[in-house]
Structure formats: C-alpha cells, structure tokens
Amino acid sequence: MRWPTLLFIFIFTTLIIAMNGESAEPEQVHLATTGIPEEMVVQWGTEEDTTVSCPSGNTVEYGIDNDNLNLSKNGNNDMYLWTTCTHTTLLSNLNPNTTYYYRVGGDGEWSNVYSFKTLEENPDKIIIGAIADHGTSSNAQETTSNMEGENLNLVIHPGDISYANGAGSGNSIGDQSVWDEYQNQIESLTSESPHMYAPGNHEEDSEPYGFDAYESRFFNPGPNSFWYSFDFEFIHFVSISSEHEYEPGSTQHTWLKNDLEDANENRGNYPWIVVFAHRPMYSSNGDGDGHGSEIEFREAMESLLFDYQVDLAIWGHDHHYERTYPVFEEEVYSNNSGTQNDPFYKPGATIHIVAGMAGRSTYDGLEEPQPLWSAYREVAYGYTLFEATNTSINYKFIRNSDMQIADEFWLVNTINVQEPTETPETNYNQTNQTEDTSLINQIKELNYLETPFIIIIIAITAIFNLKFRKK
After folding, report:
1. Where do the TM regions start and end (predicted)?
2. What's the whole-model pTM score?
C-alpha cells in the first residue's frame, strides 16, 4: 500500500512544481546546420527544477541590427533523465553574406546577444574545422580559444565530446553535469559556428541513459541520430557511428552504401565527399595506452569508401594527429608530397585523418617503424581545419603550443593548365613547324580545287622539291 501512495505523492508533487515552474536562464548556446544555406539551427540549455517539465521559453529573437532584434521564431524542447532542457529553434529565409544578431529564451529570461554570419551566395571557398576527443581540460580550452579566430563556417566533431562518462562504452553512468560544463565552455565558438557531431564511445552511458545525452543535446538533419548526411556548399558530409552495428547487411551499412552511391553520382553539385566517425580505420598509435587501427570497422566499411571514392575520412579515438597517404587495404595509391605544387590529384583512394588531439590527455604509443601508409603523425595538442573550393581542399593541422602549421596537404580534382600570355620567341623547331603548316595548306588547296589525282601527285612532288632546295 505504501508504494502506490508514495508514487502518487511523487507524481502530484512533480506536477505542482511543473505547473508553477518559472523560466530558467539560458546557457550552453550552440548552432547546427541543416545543410540549407538559408537556414540556421539555434540550440541552448536551461537548468530546470525537474526532469519531466521544461517551462522555460523556446524563442529566438534575431535581426541584422544588434540593437533591433525585430524578428522572432519559436521552437521546441527536449529532456532526458536530467534537469537540463535542450531548446531547438530553426531560423529560415536568411539572407546570404549577412551577420545576424540573436538572443534566446523567453518569459523574462534572455541570454546575451550573440551573432553568426551566413555564407555568401556561391562562395569561392569555405573553411571547416575538425576536432575530436575534446573534453573540459585546460588544453581543451586552449584549443577552443585558438579556433575562435579562424572564421570557421562549420565544425565537425567525430566523437568523445565532453567526457561526462570517463569509462565509456556503456560501462558506467557519467556525471551529467560535465555535459553542462562542457557546453558552456565552448559556447564562445559554438554560438558563432555551427557544429555537427558523430557519437564516440564516451557518449554511451549504461542504462537507463545509453546515448540519451547525445541524442537530446545535439541536432542532426536526419531521422537517425547516429548516422546522417548533409550537403554544405562544395561538400557532401556523412556522419556514421563506429559505436553501433556496422557489419554488411546492417541498417547502417545499407544506409551508407545508398547514401554514398547517390553522393558519388551528384559530384557535379557537390564534388567532395567527407566521412567522419569516431574510431579510426587507420592509426599507428597502438602501443602502450594507444588504440590503433579499428580492423573490424575497417573490414566492414572501407570498401564502401573505396567504391564510391570518398575523398577524406576524419576520425578521433586515438589522442594524437595522424594523416595517411591515399590508402585502401593498407596499399598506398599515391605517395605524392601533397604540397601545392605536388598535390594529390584524384588519387583513387581515401586520405584518413586522426584528429583526436583536441584536449584529452595524449597517447604516446606510436608504433615503430612507422607504417608505409602513414604520411605524417605527431603527439601534440591542436586542431585541424581545411579550406575547400570546387576544385581543391587544403588541409592543415595547427599545433596549440606555437600556433604553427605542423602538417599540411592539398587534394585537387582538376589540374589547371596555364595558357601562355606572350608570344614565345621563334626558334628552329617552330620555324620548321610554320613551313610545314604552309606546305600542308598548299596541298589542301589542290584538293579543294578537285584537281585530277595525277596532277596533285606531280604538284606535291614539286612542292617538296622546292622546300628541300630552300634548305
């Protein structure tokens, strides 16, 4: 008899609190993209009194004047078994190449005013950031601060985001307050540049949470939280999960095959394909406390990347930076230097990046000797970014300690041939070519006059004799 009574009291009390709840102060402001240039997804969190009710406002006020936020849009909210409520509002019909100012909240509780800038219409280039294994350490904060000055149009994050769960892979229930700490820590970056994610092993709590925090806190443009794709100017991005079933015949494997097939046929509109997920198919950081290449994941998925000519694959999980040559089944397809003067031109296989150096303690377990497929590797904190155009990708790893470019490469899909702008000086070969051209023209004229064949033969013989006499 006591349990039904206690349950009734709990439910009744919760409803009373919910009915009398007040709006909470907005925090954890972050942006996401739908892939449509005229849209921006705005998300934020509020700390509520219960895990079952979110009375705080879902409104974004925005405009092109910092002092006149004359537009507004309402959204929705979501909660899991935690008191943080995530609010999501979609802004649409935005103008290109425009700075928008915005604040979030409602019912008397508003955030500070933030801003973001929409892309130009048909931009010459875009700049994408890529980091993984971030967390809340001082090194992670330094990475965030350094990235703020890069004018990033988008950031992709291949998993192990906050480290709320230090054990990972469903082995314990993490401290959910670390999610709040993390999202407040990176707000200065996420409030101005949209971020898109893939799940890592440290996003998975044991039951009853599972991946609830990841699913509730972050927007994605597809019906599935764990694998999805979107187009962003020149690039088709594909986020997949190394933490869910991926074997051939699985739902994810079938989806990926269909998505990459469509993307490869749509190269005319989006010439580049970039895949990102957490566990790396190629990593030489496998000694000691490292992890190394995820062989089972690679054997299940790599053939799809090869068949549909995925250009870049960006991973995390191992806490260092590493870049491969274009590689498939450990066979190197191009050993170009990758410099601007010697770029990778349609190399025929994917270049893999491990970008797990964003803030979590580094792994110093590099295998020796360095594998032939490994082009560059370094154990250092930092971040990566790449500038993309219709015809090129320029990828860089920037080291935090000195803000120097530690590694850089170029990938191109077109080789430009420069036409000479001045008439070259005459030389012997060119003089002979001119005389030969004149000779051919004389022969053609004879044919056009429908001259009898025997006369043409005599004439050709005479012309050749005249030429050799001149020499």
Report:
1. 446-466
2. 0.85
Q: Which residues pair with 315 in a beta bridge?
A: 354
- Edge-to-edge strand order for the sheet containing 40-47? 27-32, 40-47, 84-91, 76-78
CA proximity to 315, closest of 299, 338, 346, 291: 291
**Does residue 459 surpass a pLDDT of 60?**
no
d(C-alpha 416, C-alpha 393), whole Å: 15
The 8-class DSSP code of residue 150 comes to: G
> Residue 5 has which token pair?
């009574």
Torsion of CA 197, 201, 207, 211, to 10 degrees: 10
pLDDT tens-digit series, residues 283-297:
999 887 779 999 999
* Torsion angle of C-alpha atoms 377, 379, 383, 387, degrees rounded to 10: -10
Q: C-alpha distances in angstroms, 404 versus 108, 396, 444?
A: 46, 10, 64
Q: Could you give the angle at which helices 138-147 and 176-185 cross, rounded to 10 degrees? A: 40
β-pair partners for 442 = none
pLDDT tens for 351-386 read 999 999 999 999 999 999 999 999 999 999 999 999
Contact 353/323 with Cβ under 8 angstroms?
yes
- Torsions phi, psi for 9 (to 5 deg): -65, -40
| Residue 29 · residue 105 · CB < 8 Å | no
